[in-house]
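Tutorial, part two.
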Amino acid sequence: MEVKTIANLATTIATTATNQAVGVAVLKKAMDVQASSAAAMLEALPPATGVNNPPHLGQNIDITA
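Running the prediction step on this input gives:
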């Protein structure tokens, strides 16, 4: 092999490793932003209200229907 070929290969490997590291960092940041957005959306939801059914509803199950 020529020295030029070895140098090109080393440069390519280094560039690929750097590109992968940057890609992983961007992916992690995007996941953090999505998690933050989801948490904000959940915080914005109004609190759940209790069910105002009469006391006789929900006490029996009709198993012969």
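Residues 14 and 65 are 70 Å apart (CA to CA). In part three we will examine how such features are distributed along the chain.
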